[in-house]
Amino acid sequence: MKERIQQIIAEVEAFKAAHATEVEDFRIRYLGKKGVLNDLFADFKLVAPEHRKETGRLLNELKNYIQNKFDQGRTAFDTQGVAFKPTPDLTMPVDFQELGARHPVSLVMNRVIDVFGRIGFPVAEGPEIEDDWHNFSALNFPPEHPARDMQDTFFLEKNPDIALRTHTSSVQIRYMEKHKPPLRAIFPGRVYRNEAISARAHCLFHQVEGLYVDKNVSFADLKQTLLYFAREMFDADTKIRLRPSFFPFTEPSAEMDISCNICSGKGCNICKYTGWVEILGCGMVDPSVLENCGINSMEYTGYAFGIGMERMALLLYQINDLRLFFENDLRFLKQFTPAI
Ligand code: PHE
Questions:
Q1: Whose alpha carbon is nearest atom 9 of ligand 1?
Q2: Does 250 contact ligand 1 (Cβ within 6 A)?
Q3: What digits encode the pLDDT tens for the residues 69-100?
Q4: Is the C-beta atom of 305 inside 6 A of ligand 1?
Q5: Is residue 177 part of a domain?
Q6: What domain range includes position 115?
Q7: Helix and strand totals (H; E) in the chain
Q8: S-S: 283 plus which of 113, 161, 187, 253, CB 3.0-4.6 Å?
């Protein structure tokens, strides 16, 4: 009896109806007056008393199973006997496809490109692997300059020297070699320095440098352009100040601070309680650099500047550790996704 029950379970399990008439056949075969179930119940009388309890339980289970299967079959067809199409469950959670996002440094860089684009600066690019001429010599770096040291620069080859560019000023040289003044452009890109990685320094970072060469370009033009830039990037009432500095390729040279965008100049830990934060280096292009590129320095003058993008992003997003930009931690990076 047990084996018969098991065999019937297997049969019922395998049953699949393609049309409502087959469900009716199923009912007659298993649940009908002369059906399988009734036969089994009739035979129950013959079961030995010691097996009755267990067999009875199995029989009842089988009955429920068959009844369920029949009910399921009945609801799967419409009045014409045609199978209902399974309706998709619209409340099911979807397989979520994550959207990509721009890196915060790219977001800032694109903004810088946009700000200068509005005053007529096109973008120019150059190689990240540079020769000595474009990265150092044409920019007036003397042979003994510390930047030419292995400690500061990643050299790929020596004699002749090939290195990972240490700034995008190399692209300024390439640009002046190709274009005659009046000229202006900005030079965004990756640069490399042999520095220990810390919260404030990294061996790889991003710059946007700028260059403008024409007749009668003055320091006042530089200052006004940078004021415009600072106010577009930060608040409209941002102040700037220029401190004398030194770069081999500009004369005079300066570093530019903006009034701290966090505390509005009142003093906080970002500006180290000075009210000012440094954001870029700049100056008037040294006449010998112009001459190196075949530009007559008696006729033309120019200004140049270089802005660190990570620094900019730290200030704009109020982040205190530069390493976060390079760790590719999605929990960090997701925070800068502009709302779609
Ligand atoms: N090249 C300089 C640097 O990387 C920045 C700079 C560019 C300064 C142009 C002055 C003029 O630090």
A1: 305
A2: yes
A3: 999 888 888 878 788 887 788 898 888 777 77
A4: yes
A5: yes
A6: 104-333
A7: 11, 9
A8: 253
